[in-house]
Amino acid sequence: MVSALTYDFLLGAGRIELCASLLEGGITPTTGLLQIVKQYVQIPVFVMIRPRGGDFLYSDREVEVMKADIRLAKIHGADGLVFGALTEDGRIDTELCMDLLAVSRPLPVTFHRAFDMVYDPLLAMETLISLGFERVLTSGCDSSALEGLPLIKRLVEQAKGRILVMPGGGITERNLHRILEGTGVQEFHCSARSTKESLMKYRNHSVCMGAAITTSEYSIKVADVAKVRTLNAMAKNFL
Q1: What is the pLDDT of residue 232?
Q2: CA 111, CA 230: separation in Å to the nearest integer?
Q3: 6-52 tens-digit pLDDT
Q4: Which end of the chain is more exposed for a tag (fewer CB within 10 A), N or C?
Q5: Which of 154, 129, 176 lies closest to 5 in space, CA to CA?
Q6: How far is CA 29 from CA 5, 69, 74, 199, in A?
Q7: Which InterPro entries does the UniProt record give (predicted)?
Q8: 196: containing domain
């Protein structure tokens, strides 16, 4: 699985957030992946800029990588970018974000779920607005958007249209209606994924290519067309 989908209520799946390694919460995809995806899709492709999994406190060398990845994404057709950075005390790293936004111009930028790790989400959102981020992706600083619903609603009320608040994290056809109804958001974000079994006939189950907690080497996560259609229909019916 290498991407997540963002839905605009009027247009259906209106945007792809392109990333690699969803098991790590998403990291920067390869340039080759971006090039091929751009050949086959008509909707905007926003590229994740995250050099590694883990926290969002970056070293100077990691910042160099992020800036290089932004430049490459722009060259190869990215329609927007997705990134976030924090200070060690859980605040938005305004200096770094300003630098990355400058490299990103004129593309729109989403602040990703690094937001869910901030010390003060209400203050953090005001910071994002002042910096010029177009939207913020959040689970309401909880394990899923459903559990974080009260904060997401509060953030939407606070934003007053100055920034788009986009719920994401565990959104499925089972809870979408409740999230839309409870927050009043204009967009939502989900992976709409399912597991696809490998076509390999010979299988060596004694070897794992990653950590022991990773999924089987003989299954992959893919965007599920049926789930995409169901979520799209639900969003339209909600209107």
Answers
A1: 77
A2: 27
A3: 555 434 568 899 998 877 888 999 999 999 999 988 899 999 999 99
A4: C
A5: 176
A6: 15, 9, 13, 24
A7: CutC-like (IPR005627), CutC-like_dom_sf (IPR036822)
A8: 3-238
Position 109 scores a pLDDT of 98
Residues 6+ apart with CB under 8 A from 141: 115, 116, 117, 118, 121, 148, 151
Can you give the pLDDT at residue 239?
A: 54
Asked if 189 contacts 4 with a C-beta cutoff of 8 angstroms, the reply is yes
Instruction: List the alpha helices (DSSP H) in the chain.
Output: 31-40, 60-75, 94-104, 121-131, 149-159, 176-183, 225-238
Q: What is the dihedral of CA 137, 33, 74, 4, to 10 degrees?
A: -10
- Ranges under pLDDT 50 in the chain: 1, 9-11
**In which region does residue 93 sit, left (phi positive, over 0), alpha (psi from -120 to 50) or beta (all else)?**
beta
Residue type, 239: L
Residue 38: what residue type? Answer: K
| CA distances from residue 41 to 38, 45, 46, 55, 126 in whole angstroms, order as listed | 6, 8, 12, 31, 34
How many independent structural domains does the chain possess? 1
Give Cα separations from 81 to 20, 42, 93, 172, 235 (angstroms): 14, 17, 17, 24, 24
pLDDT value of residue 11: 42
